[in-house]
Design brief:
Blueprint: E1 4-8, H1 15-26, E2 29-32, H2 34-45, H3 50-55, H4 70-79, H5 83-88, H6 90-97, E3 103-107, H7 110-114, E4 120-125, H8 128-141, H9 148-164, E5 177-180, H10 186-204
Helix pairs in contact: 1-10, 2-4, 4-9, 8-9
Bound molecules: cytidine-5'-diphosphate.
Cytidine-5'-diphosphate is lined by residues 11-12, 33-34, 37-38, 73, 76-77, 80, 107-109, 158, 162.
Length: 205
């Protein structure tokens, strides 16, 4: 049986944490689609053409340790505007989403473009300041010397670019459940997401 959970939302909204928690709880596979764009962005920072980089992407590219930096995030959001780059990554994501046993995909356009018939669609968000603070703590724990102000500027710049692009702009699907985690702990946000998925699983059982 295939069962797809699509989780979208702006930068640093907590999609990754919720997706991993949902996947672990239900035994589903998880794909962080942001990593695909980060891996392409990383290759462009090393001089490659974005489209060639997207076409040449291999699973090992997603294992690189330095994909989570703010610099790579910016490069990712720049290549993500390119409709040919996006098309080159569609098949991999769709095949992943229908794998037997269930799949969780998180990104920006999963509920709208990649998996419009996903059984569950969540749009996870929080205020820009709260998202930036969470990302700042994450990056500084990893030894980055980026400032709070730089992280907030990065988050805002990417949100605007991601929402304003003409191909697959970031937005909630019409039938997505909105989850604003501004005033929620990680445990509370995960609990809310698990309850939504649980209900949907009950409906298809
Ligand atoms: O972790 P964070 O939310 O900061 O970013 P990410 O999910 O790793 O995505 C990095 C960038 O890739 C985003 O700013 C988007 O520009 C792009 N992206 C996209 O366009 N579509 C997706 N499905 C996932 C990411």
């Amino acid at each position: 049986m295939s069962f797809t959970v699509a989780i979208d939302g702006p930068a640093a909204a907590g999609k990754g944490t919720i997706s991993k928690g949902v996947a672990a709880h239900f035994g589903f596979a998880h794909l962080d689609t942001g990593l695909l764009y980060r891996a392409v962005g990383w290759r462009t920072l090393n001089g490659e053409d974005p489209l060639e980089a997207a076409r040449a992407l291999v699973p090992d590219d997603l294992e690189r340790g330095d994909l989570r930096t703010a610099e790579v995030a910016q490069a990712a959001s720049r290549v993500a505007v390119n409709s040919d780059v996006r098309s080159a990554l569609v098949t991999f994501q769709r095949e992943f989403s229908r794998r037997p046993g269930g799949a969780v995909l998180d990104g920006r356009d999963i509920g709208t473009v990649i998996c419009p018939s996903a059984e569950v669609k969540l749009y996870v968000t929080a205020s820009a300041e709260i998202r930036a603070e969470r990302r700042y703590l994450e990056l500084s724990a990893k030894g980055s010397d980026i400032t709070r102000e730089q992280v907030l500027a990065d988050v805002r710049e990417r949100d605007t670019r991601d929402a304003d692009r003409s191909t697959a702009p970031m937005k909630p699907a019409a039938d997505a459940v909105l989850l604003d985690t501004s005033d929620m702990s990680v445990a509370e946000a995960l609990k809310a997401a698990l309850a939504i998925v649980d209900r949907a699983l009950g409906a298809v059982a």
